[in-house]
Amino acid sequence: MLEGSGYSPLVFDAMQSLAKNGALVLLSVTGGDRKAEVPADKINLDFVLGNRIMLGSVNAAREHFEAGVRDMIHAESAYPGFLKSLLTHPVPGLARVDELFEKLTTAKGAIKVYCEVAPL
Hints:
By secondary structure, the chain is an alpha/beta fold. It is about 40% helix and about 15% strand. The strands form two sheets. A three-stranded parallel beta sheet has the order 1-2-3, with helices on one face. Strands 4-5 form a two-stranded parallel ribbon. Helix 1 links the parallel strand 1 (about 1-5) and strand 2. The protein starts with a strand and ends with a strand. The model has no long low-confidence stretch (mean pLDDT about 90).
């Protein structure tokens, strides 16, 4: 489950809605000093006994993306074809989602499985 609303009470709702063996990924940051009462012991019990996980991810600032582009340009300049060689398992078109998931889970030697939305 992905949560990216920036509204902290939804995080706790999501924690309580998560299925067994589920993962909750937090993609937003909340500000302020909002308070919420939650069934903390039940949430903890459900997470541990239900083998659930919660993790967060933060995006970088524009300058970090620009540095990444510069690094990729440098890598391609120093080792022509290197970056393309990392794209090992393309799946053409969004309509072939079953094939995409099949490759994601079973492809031997896969470095990067990806959906090619439009020809390059």
